[in-house]
Amino acid sequence: DWQDLTVYSAAVGYQASNDWWWELRYSTQQQPEPTSALLSQALEEQYSDRNFAVGIGRPTGANSQLRLTASYAAREYFLGTPTIGTFDGDGEQIEFEALWQVNF
After folding, report:
1. How far apart are the first and last CA of the chain?
2. Do residues 34 and 48 make contact, with C-beta atoms less than 8 angstroms apart?
3. E strands along the chain, which residues?
4. How far apart are CA 32 and CA 44, in angstroms?
5. CA dihedral for 45, 47, 50, 53, sign (positive or negative)
6. How many whole angstroms separate alpha carbon 49 and alpha carbon 56?
7. pLDDT at residue 87 above 60?
8. What is the pLDDT of residue 35?
9. CA 56 → CA 15, 29, 100, distances in Å?
């Protein structure tokens, strides 16, 4: 079993022109804590209680947009989606993401 997790997030954005905008976001993002004391102790060093992201974006058409984002977390395991391969080391991680969104 896992304990419920409350995530707090705050963001500020600015539209620099008709085409470009940026956003800065802070989240208390981490994995839910297990109810098992033994599992909680094993995972304790992997918890990340802060995540920062900065992004820019612009429309690429009437129904589409392009977003570029960089995220930082104090632990390598808890950002976004997993990457190909594995990394067994500890430490901080920065991830970059490019997203092209098309509404239809």
Report:
1. 39
2. no
3. 9-14, 21-27, 51-61, 64-73, 93-102
4. 11
5. positive
6. 24
7. no
8. 77
9. 9, 21, 12
Q: How many CB atoms lie within 10 A of CB 77?
A: 15
Regarding predicted confidence, which is higher, 92 or 61? 61
Distances (CA, A) of 74 to 65, 71, 80, 95, 97: 30, 10, 13, 12, 18
Whether pLDDT at 68 is above 70: yes
Reduced 3-state DSSP string for 59-77: EEECCEEEEEEEEEECCCC
Domain ranges of the chain: 9-102
What single-letter DSSP state applies at residue 80? S
How far from the centroid of its chain's Cα atoms is residue 66's Cα?
17
Q: What is the DSSP letter of 23?
A: E
* Rg of the Cα atoms in the chain: 17
Quick check: pTM over 0.85?
no
- Cβ-contact 71, 99 below 8 angstroms: no
